[in-house]
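#help-structures
NK: newbie question, is this the right format to request a structure? protein is ATP-binding cassette domain-containing protein
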Amino acid sequence: MAPIVSIRNLTKSYATGFKALKGVDLDIEEGEILALLGPNGAGKTTMISIICGIVTPTSGTVTVGGHDIQQDFRRTRSIIGLVPQELTLDAFETVWNTVSFSRGLHGCKPDPALIERILKDLSLYDKKDTMLRHLSGGMRRRVLIAKALSYEPKVLFLDEPTAGVDVSLRKDMWQLVERLRANGVTIILTTHYIEEAEEIADRIGVINHGEILLVEEKQALMAKLGRKQMTVELAEPLAAIPDTLSPFGLTLSEEGARLVYEFNASGERTGISSLLAALSQAGLRVKDISTEQSSLEDIFVELVGEGK
């Protein structure tokens, strides 16, 4: 099956000479949730803006649903929903009218039942007759999502959708995202909350300095790049690590009661058996052993650091 969004050699340069995107290639599969991670200024919003027809690329091609975004703008824009970072709304309009107008703006027939369902899903229905200027920032962000969903897009871009949103609203949003995915909607989100990407995404993309560093299935990425850490709690504290243990690259805690060993869980040999044997030969008694795997945040920080 062809990807629903296909990006080839996409670049964006400005008159100042700044290159926001540098030959980006990316395929997004239909029905998946792709989390796009990157620091501020990495090129995330620029790429989304180009796909949505807001910004003109310098070179390269983008197709959505098999249609070129520049040659067939109306067709592609009708199947794309965008929830931008900025809270750009008519302050003196009601929630219901704002969402209904968005549906009509995209050439869709009125569907009050659909609008009602969307507002209820986003816990906005009791605010349907409220002017937007009377809503909190979090609730206005929900209205942006409702506007994007009003014309039933096949592809939904969420650009930092939970920025400034409290925990309860954030959980509601992700439950809605799961329901949308179940209905076949393709979702691309950018977020600074890496734990959210780790929780909800099928694939993770990392972008920095206008270049895609990698795109991987979440579990494969964790297995490939995630390192494990084993902590050995000693029965008696050490003043220093014995020379016989130096090949293992151990780290001794400040109080001397724990040794920390990092290893690659996907490697053919972890070295754990050899380490335990070496500890015994060194006359060290082990009180407890625990392991933990590096998080997606650890991997992200490492990748972005390498890309600097």
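mod (FA): yep, format's fine, and the tokens are attached above. The first strand starts at residue 5 and ends at 13.
NK: thank you!
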